[in-house]
Amino acid sequence: MIVMDYQLNPFKPGAGRIPPELAGRADLVAEYRRLLYQARETGEGDRPWILTGLRGVGKTVLLNQFGKEAADLKLMFIKVEASGDTPLAQSLIKELHLALRRVMSASDRARRTWHTAARAFRSFQLRIDPTGSYAFGVTIEPSLGVADSGDLAVDLRELLEQIGLAAREANTVLLLAVDELQEASANDLASLNRALHKLGQDISPVPVVFVGAGLPSLPAVLADATSYAERLYDYRRIGLLDVMATTDALAVPVQSGGAEWNEDALGEAVDATGGYPYFIQAYGSYIWAARATNLITLDDVEIGVEAARAEIDRGLYQSRWERSSPTQQAFMAAMALDAGDPSAMSDLVVRLGKRSTTDISVNRRDLIRSGLIFTPQRGVVAFTVPGMDDFISRQEL
Q1: Which of 1, 131, 136, 168 could form a disulfide with 294 if both were Cys (CB 3.0 to 4.6 A apart)?
Q2: What is the pLDDT of residue 371?
Q3: Which residues have a Cβ under 8 Å from the Cβ of 296 and sit 6 or more positions away?
Q4: DSSP letter assigned to residue 135
Q5: Nearest to residue 87, comparing CAs of 175, 158, 163, 186?
Q6: What share of the chain is helix, strand, coil (3-state, %, to 5)?
Q7: CB under 8 Å to 197, separation ≥6 — which residues?
Q8: Whole-number CA gyration radius for the chain
Q9: What class does CATH assign to 324-393?
Q10: In terms of DSSP bridges, do strands 260-261 and 295-296 run parallel, antiparallel, or are they unpaired?
Q11: Low-confidence ranges of the chain (pLDDT < 50)
Q12: Contact (CB, 8 A) for 281 and 314
């Protein structure tokens, strides 16, 4: 079988890109679509969701897919990424402004429907970012006494309430998504928790639906901000794909691209990825590029995997490793001896030649803050990126 020049690579490596085959997530996506549909039909919001998982397992992909589901249902969707450098409210302002401006420009009737919400937005914006310029094409005066108290939890709740009331009148829903939520400040998380808690306690909650995503440590971070966060959110853990889903994720795009797998080659590729979605797209892309014909062979897999691993080393692991201090690198090297399993702090103390966990607590804290490791349970740490242990074991220390 001759490879045709116009055949496009069907895989989509990269952060947050929706893959050609969203394998293993169909039930979750369908459940969320039903949640959005119900919110639109009843005019009421639902319990907020939190997606947690290691880096590269597809949390951002799911947020983007939820956004596509919202678009299909003609709902409003905004997504922001939390950052330690930018207050959450400032990020929300930019995206909420775009969403409100879009719906208000649809017609005179839409402008009237969303006018009160836009006034609440102006009040909120002037409190958070008085120097910012957020025009709507018409003059919008702030709504005095609404979303302008200076208490972020109160103001955010009042803003979302006004937007939700307009959304109900317009027979739509606001889907609000926040990625990398663990990066937000403790004050911002506490305010978000309080605002969503109050919204959910209304007799008829407005149709505002929230979904956040972050590392496995996020539930504990949210609970530290406000204790009732454990009950506030519907937590969903996003893990690695099983063999069947991994096979589909590799096989379906290849078939749609006009090629096919040798059975042994497909099995080898499935094993190489370990069910890690980030690897599936990267390996699949390089294997596709390595093939000499439209039948993918074991040789193609070997060549593609080797090339993909070299790129992944440079892009996924090397930067994380190089921005760590020598003592942090030593800490992670001690973790790497557990070959991907979580590491007990007591074992790390011995490996690092220290006397107690207090002696290595600063490195532990800083590595957690930088998102390189997390604590799956008390007294234990693990890498946030699968395969980091293998990369470290190949370094000259």
Answers
A1: 1
A2: 87
A3: 254, 259, 260, 261, 262, 265, 266, 287, 288
A4: -
A5: 186
A6: 55, 10, 35
A7: 226, 228, 232
A8: 24
A9: mainly alpha
A10: parallel
A11: none
A12: no
